[in-house]
Write a structure and sequence with these properties.
The chain is α/β, with parallel strands linked by helices. The chain contains 10 helices and 12 strands. Helices cover 32% and strands 16% of the residues. It binds glutamic acid.
Length: 308
């Protein structure tokens, strides 16, 4: 079967080196097998994202020679236009009795006594899952708008990550009931990403290792909704010399600055070096990396980068 990969950026700022590494590896994974690449714009949060930033991101990918086969600024590939599909999936979960309203404020959630997960997120205590209909009605009367959570089973979900190897979580203990729709009505990333990957027939998900913790709950959601889960490939995060993770707010590492300092070939060479495909950074075109690409060469752990 032909591989369908995707790159699914959130257009909330300029891409940084870490986003580019994920984009390059998603592109190589597909191009080395004659597959197809979808570019999905994850603009669920219309307050934090913009069409202009999405356009700039596409220009940055083209500048690097990372062309996609489908997607971009077309409503079918933009999450802000796909609400009807998320509604449908939400409804299926509701019919299975898996959804409940959660009235907890952020402070109440953070005060939860449950342990913190590896990614720093709090495991929800499940407080609102026990509310009676009267208690819910009372909270509504007081003007509280609920978010919506999905009830996680006491089940170990194990997966074989194509880059990091085996990874497993007990959903109830390690993840906890998670939000699939926010109190302002916006669907949450976890639901949207599963629906989109399924409906866009994505077979390979290549993305940063910070999302490895999301893979078990996404695998489970795929199954509950009757889809086949994709294979996951989580790629190393790039760390600044002081150990902090690169983020969009670190403008020193973003595409605005990188495009002034590098040519597309020299920047691709640097990324290929971090990806384990070259012994040292040297100018190269993305397409010249296709025969060199293999997941066996890609580091499993985070990579510390020098100043660009
Ligand atoms: N939209 C997410 C981001 O830009 C990536 C989501 C994913 O690849 O599953 O970080």
């Amino acid at each position: 079967m032909q591989i369908r990969g995707r790159f699914a950026p959130t257009p909330s700022g300029r891409m940084h080196l870490g986003n580019l590494l994920a984009a390059l590896l998603a592109w190589l994974d597909v191009r080395s097998t004659g597959g197809e690449l979808v570019l999905r714009i994850e603009d669920l949060d219309t307050q934090r994202t913009s069409r202009g930033l999405a356009g700039q991101l596409m220009d940055d990918l083209r500048w690097l020679g990372l062309e996609w086969d489908e997607g971009g600024l077309k409503p079918e590939y933009m999450q802000s236009y796909r609400t009807m599909y998320y509604e449908e999936a939400f409804h299926i979960l509701e019919q299975q009795g898996l959804i409940y309203p959660c009235y907890c404020s952020r402070t109440e959630r953070m005060a939860s006594t449950a342990p913190h997960r590896g990614d720093g997120a709090v495991v929800y205590s499940g407080k609102c899952s026990h509310l009676t209909a009267e208690e819910q009605a009372e909270l509504e009367r007081r003007g509280r708008h609920p978010a919506w959570r999905v009830r996680c089973p006491d089940l170990i979900v194990a997966l074989e990550d194509g880059n990091c190897g085996p990874y497993a979580e007990n959903l109830a203990h390690d993840c906890g009931d998670f939000i699939v729709r926010r109190s302002d009505g916006v669907f949450a990333y976890q639901l949207a990403v599963v629906v989109d990957d399924a409906l866009m027939r994505v077979s390979h998900v290549v993305r940063g290792r910070d999302l490895l913790y999301s893979a078990p709950r996404q695998t489970w959601l795929h199954e509950v909704l009757g889809y086949t889960p994709p294979e996951f490939f989580h790629v190393p995060l790039l760390l600044a010399p002081d150990g902090r993770r690169l983020a969009k707010r670190d403008h020193d590492m973003d595409m605005g600055v990188l495009r002034e300092r590098y040519t597309p070939e020299s920047l691709t060479g640097l990324l290929a070096f971090y990806a384990g495909l070259l012994d040292r950074p040297q100018s190269v075109q993305a397409k010249e990396l296709i025969p060199l690409f293999s997941w066996a060469k890609v580091p499993k752990n985070d990579v510390v980068v020098g100043s660009p």
